[in-house]
């Protein structure tokens, strides 16, 4: 967010972000705390991810209903998140050694808060390999203070540099147990690739990314992180 001539401009990739920002500003003002403190509370209770999941419903409601939804999430004080993983392989135990290299957030096990996105991942992997099946796994992620978690709320310069490092160097170029943030998928990959190849500057790339639809991913990179991920079910899709 930056000011120019008395006018405030916000870098917003989607109306989901706008809804989240409005809720954040409202919460900070109502409780007389800074926006940074409000962000930390939203992060702790996965408010951003839950707004993303419920966006289709919240988008049709009055903004004050969204504010109340946020208040209810924080009041419940249950820092758990339902996650989905799409694959063409049926498995019972996660093996980080089998993770693909040069991923957005580094080598790891990737999930999403969006079940439809997991369905698409499963279908894409099956069509690419023509092996196995189409499986969607449902997990419960229990956030803990012992985990080092990095949260990216937007497609900004920090996210872009983070993705660049992990995709170009490979393996895991950070020390986080879990990383949460936007996906460099079909909606964003062309811009990301132009940036990685040096055709676009970081500022040009971020400007383009503002107009992309944002999907979500949650990546797990350490055995400790996996201890907080509990499998609920697996289904064929």
From TrEMBL:
Pfam families: DUF3791 (PF12668), DUF3990 (PF13151). It comes from the Bacteria. This is DUF3990 domain-containing protein. It comes from Blautia hansenii DSM 20583.
